[in-house]
Amino acid sequence: MGLTISEKIIKAHLVSGEPAKGAEIGLKIDQTLTQDATGTMAYLQLEAMGVGRVKTELSVAYIDHNTLQSGFENADDHRFIGSVAKKRGIRFSRPGNGICHQVHLERFGIPGKTLIGSDSHTPTCGGLGMLAIGAGGRDVAVAMSGGAYYITMPKIVNINLSGRLSPWVSAKDVILEVLRILTVKGGVGKIIEYGGDGVKTLSVPERATITNMGAELGATTSIFPSDDITHEFLKAQGREADFAEIQPDADAVYDEVIEIKLNDIVPLAAMPHMPDNVKPVSEIGKIGINQVCIGSCTNSSLFDMMKAAYILKGKKVADNVDLSIAPGSKQVLSMLAENGALADMINAGARILESACGPCIGMGQSPNSGGVSLRTFNRNFEGRSGTKDARIYLVSPETAAWSAVNGVFSDPREIGEFPKIILPDLFDINDNMVIMPVSETEAENIEVLYGPNIKEVPPANKIQDTIKDKVILKVGDDITTDHIMPAGAKILPYRSNIPYLSKFCFEVCDPSFAERALQNGGGVILGGANYGQGSSREHAALVPLYLGIKAVITKSFARMHKANLINSGILPLTFENTDDYDRISQGDELELKNIRDSIHNRDNIYIYNLSKNEEYTLILDISDIQRNQLLSI
């Protein structure tokens, strides 16, 4: 029986376990990346491990999230990360060089290699044929120190693409269609592997858009073949030597196959407030809009920017619309300036932002109250934009630019003739904003520079044999890490200061949560299905840890958040009978007994609702390594 692309890469990097579905496997990691919103914590943990030099083939520290320096906090974090990078053998991508995923795709990603990053959209490099996975900062630190990365062997789903996209339909519409089919829960425990003749019609930037938003499916990762198109992209980046062809075997067997005809897809949009709430643009209608944002790690490539510039050329942004555009990297921005496309954008009335994440994480450009904002981003969770009552739609660059001109939601197929945009034979290659580390000898003289806002990582909970505490919070399905630990310009500067950051925990759901948790000395959180979906931010576990949370009980967990809870010594428990969720109320007193024996013996854990005199059965669905980890804390 032949192998899939994913199975080939896993087999080549397997250091422990057998790659049978549902079994735990350990993988050798070739590359890591971090960004500054998660990087400080990752590097604090790396420093605590006492690692002299990183053991990976390549590690890169990017500054792309907290680039708004309205106080000393972000600048201090950047200085800290830069000093660790220089000393420990990590390349340092300076602020302004670009968004980590866009730059890594351009300059560092290699087909067939493994990559983990402390950002959920690390699978972007799956567009190059990498096995690229988002992870918590601690897991990235372990990989940098030479340790394996452990996951449960996922199922592998083949999405077979046939045909060709129609004019004015884009890769963003493809992944929105996949989200419509599978939902935000549909990729959990799976790798999404794209194949079929339709793959040959998609450029690497288009493939990367699709793998980027695989994170919104909850997938472990997404991946495309590495083929002639990959070869041409790497050659244009001056990296032809990095190319390796990777295709599935002809007799590869998948756990599931989904057929999608590219020519059947139409311009789509994700409606508020979830990426899988997808409708055709034509059905949404000509509703008025207030804001358009083009950019993010999903849609900020030169290819996307050139399409937007074509639509804007010679036109004017509608009076009622504020348009901002953020090219994804210095390379993209420089090439737009050289070919005149940047002037077309500026002359149309666009505001050009720096090459960074910006509005995607609520770092500026928050919409007006109750405003309608069209964004080429990957998430439209409630409040993520910085304006709680804003209505955020996720769209393609074509839909975004055309709507900005018209002042209302508009179908780009109205434009007419579609331009032929050809990627250059040679990109603008200038890596002068990537600072190389010093030699191991010189590193002895490098001081790691801390700032007053940088606080220690809180120590993980020691698992007690009995937990007797209140349900301090009860929330519903699809709670995101943005609900647990919000982003935004006001909060992100404190990502390296857990005590201060804790004031904002669950602010979106319950503004009194943090104060109540402190007064109660912690407690238990009750959640619905797909709890913790969204980003890899381990702050969504570290802050509840600081507030004294001992267990989270849900119908189901998102992969990365569950791993982060385990790393923090917080029990991630699920109901054997999900109907029991409805039987427990916020404020109920719960008791869990014989916890350590149950973990050791792989037994179910029984919970007693002392307030209602009821008992429920809970499951601790974790690997043997995670069991040992919890018991050893």
**Arithmetic mean pLDDT:** 95
Structural class: alpha/beta
> Biggest sheet: strands side by side, in what order?
21-22-23-24-27-26-25
Largest sheet: 7 strands, mixed, barrel
Number of helices: 21
The rounded Rg comes to 24 Å
Low-pLDDT parts are none
- How far the N terminus sits from the C terminus, by CA atoms, comes to 42 Å
**Strand runs, count:** 27
Structure overview:
This protein is of the alpha/beta class. The protein has 21 helices and 27 strands. The protein has a seven-stranded mixed beta barrel with strand order 21-22-23-24-27-26-25, surrounded by four helices. Strands 7-6-3-4-5-20 form a six-stranded mixed β-sheet, with helices on one face. Strand 4, helix 3 and strand 5 (91-93) form a beta-alpha-beta unit. Helix 2 packs across helix 3, helix 2 packs across helix 5 and helix 10 crosses helix 12. The longest helix has 17 residues, at 72-88. The protein starts with a helix and ends with a helix. The mean pLDDT is 95.
List the helices and strands and how they pair.
Blueprint: H1 5-13, E1 14-16, E2 24-27, E3 31-35, H2 36-48, E4 58-62, H3 72-88, E5 91-93, H4 100-107, E6 114-117, E7 131-134, H5 137-144, E8 149-152, E9 155-162, H6 171-182, E10 190-195, H7 204-212, E11 221-223, H8 228-236, E12 256-261, E13 268-270, E14 278-280, H9 281-284, E15 291-294, H10 302-312, E16 322-325, H11 330-339, H12 341-348, E17 351-352, E18 372-375, E19 391-394, H13 397-406, E20 434-435, H14 440-443, E21 467-474, H15 481-484, H16 498-501, H17 513-520, E22 523-526, H18 539-546, E23 549-554, H19 559-567, E24 571-575, E25 589-592, H20 595-601, E26 605-609, E27 614-619, H21 624-632
Parallel strand pairs: 3-4, 3-6, 4-5, 6-7, 9-10, 9-12, 10-11, 15-16, 15-18, 16-17, 18-19, 21-22, 22-23, 23-24
Antiparallel strand pairs: 1-2, 2-8, 5-20, 13-14, 21-25, 24-27, 25-26, 26-27
